[in-house]
Amino acid sequence: MTLTTLQAKWMMEHVRASRAGEANASLIELFLRDLERLDRPDGETSEYLMVAELAKRFRVHPKTICRWCAQGRFRGAWQTGNGYWRIPYQAVEAFELVKGRP
Fold first, then answer.
1. What is the pLDDT of residues 37-53, one digit of tens each?
2. Is 54 found in the same domain as 89?
3. pTM of structure
4. pLDDT, tens digit, 9 for 90 and up, residues 5-31
5. Which has the least CB within 10 A, 46, 47, 65, 101?
6. Residue 67 to residues 13, 38, 49, 55, 60: CA-CA distances in angstroms?
7. Residues 55-67 pLDDT 10s
């Protein structure tokens, strides 16, 4: 789930609740709960994983993950303007299917 998706979901819920005359407090709680889950690397709510998360997952040094990204082992991995790698969750799943989880 991206932030844009979360915003759209919240706006639809807000309109629905306003029409039904429900209190906004429960909607705000829903929004905050979803916002907290937004950056989790659980595959359902996060689109990208960071190097440290993958290093811990595969039990390798973070530099190994960076080297794998540079070698193209994770399709769609990209570097931010600061040089940090972002690896798509789907690419990690594909890597695990092909190479097996270390």
1. 554 444 444 588 899 99
2. yes
3. 0.54
4. 656 666 677 667 666 666 555 656 666
5. 101
6. 43, 27, 15, 11, 11
7. 998 999 999 999 9
Residue 43 within any structural domain of the chain: no
Does residue 61 share a domain with residue 84? yes
CB 9 within 8 A of CB 49: no
One-letter amino acid for residue 32 of the chain: L
Distances (CA, A) of 6 to 30, 36, 45, 102: 10, 11, 10, 34
Question: Which of 33-64 are b and which e, b meaning 16 or more Cβ less than 10 Å from the residue's Cβ?
Answer: ebeeeeeebeeebbbbbbbebbbeebeeeeee
Q: Do 32 and 55 belong to one domain?
A: no
Range of the domain at 59: 48-99
